[in-house]
Amino acid sequence: MKLGQNFLWGGAMAANQCEGAAFEDGKGLSLMDKIPDAEHGRKEVLYQPHLTLQKDHGSYPSHEAIDFYHRYKEDLSLLGKLGLKAFRTSISWSRIFPLGDETEPNEAGLQFYDDLFDECLKQGMEPVVTLCHFDVPWHLVEKYGSWRSRKMIDFYEHYCEVVLTRYKDKVKYWMTFNEINMMTHIPFLGGGVIIGKDEDFNQIVYQAAHYQLTASAKATATAHRINPDFKIGCMMAAGTFYPYTCHPEDVMAACDANSRNYIFIDVQMRGEYSSYAECLFKQMELTLDILPEDLVLIKANTCDFIGFSYYSSRLTSAHPVDVKIADGNAITTLRNPHLSITKWGRQIDPIGLRVTMNDLYQRYQKPLFIVENGLGCEDVLANDGVHDSYRIDYLSAHISEMEKAILLDGVHCLGYLAWGIIDLVSAGSGEMDKRYGLIYVDKHNDGSGSLKRIPKDSYYWYQQLIANQGEIIY
């Protein structure tokens, strides 16, 4: 199968996982700069920040990451030679507004992204930019409680106004928040929200999510005013829930899980909360600060496309007794006996990508954009490179199912961006040894390494795939 010339083959990274330079050129601390590596308590900080943030954990991988801040020209040159048509990254909010609530931006931060986007365009790559990718300025967390506060909407709107205006002639594709549904799974990662053990978890996360949804609508309105040609996307962590068995109760459990996972994207794509969401909020006895003007704003400013990450399908049951659990990386799922699984708990399901694409497209009838898909695993660097045939198998299987969704099922998809196109710090585990890249970075969990970049076998495979417009050569 082949896709057209306009299909955006590309790769994806995120500022907090690749840039480093956490204290350079006026940048302020972000929430990711307060999260240590796996060995020094990352899981505890992610899931219990109210208990662990006061400690000095000693090792913070985002502070250097892979030093993309100083090496971006070298890296983008490698990606240009790969043949990428699109490169996804994010803007670090605290690089533009170090505290987050200032009036005037940091010019050095703005200039960095000017130079970065110029280099992308020079290499023939369309920038795809996430405005907030798990990257809230730390000052906003400390002073306002981050997205627990309605004040965040104005701070975010001001930040968006500045960067959308600055880069209006360099960036066409934008996404407002990364994996917005992560708020209900890891609220500290999803938005810097810290919840005490005696607080109502659902009340806080759905309120914070509403403020994010309102802010997203404001950013969408601002973007379309600044440049009507902008394409503004939402972004979700996707993966259809399957029923564990064909028992009607299991089917209903999967229906419920999928409806819950779509709550925020329903708002961003349809312009209103679903009747399912309204019933759920009543059942949870939530009292949410939702103003009439919020709903008017949201209704008038839906997104242009659905960006999503896909790593695996999910599995659920009405009676999950004596069923194995898979880690699932943030989203708990039952163990699917028909799928293989990675060391880090992700089940591999290429057909699930096609299922998910069909579900999303039939639900919203707006273009999709696969902005993350990839395999995190341990790679071995040999004298003659990295022979990652397992990654080639993974990518080819998923791309094949994507092409079936497009060419056989009629799904409209803008592009495919391989996640972690260059090895970077894992957001979940904080490790370097959980590698996604098609380019190896000589850096390890303990921080050692030369940071040298080395293309893997998968790099050359993807290069050929792009040159052949998606025709997979086995």
Automatic annotation (TrEMBL):
Alphabetized Pfam families for the sequence: Glyco_hydro_1
Organism: Dielma fastidiosa
A GO term from the CC aspect: cytosol
Sequence similarity: Belongs to the glycosyl hydrolase 1 family.
Entry-linked InterPro entries: GH, GH_1_N_CS, Glyco_hydro_1, Glyco_hydro_1_AS
Protein name, per record: 6-phospho-beta-glucosidase
Catalytic-site annotation from UniProt: E372 (nucleophile)
PROSITE patterns for this protein: GLYCOSYL_HYDROL_F1_1, GLYCOSYL_HYDROL_F1_2
GO biological process: carbohydrate catabolic process
Gene3D superfamilies membership: Glycosidases
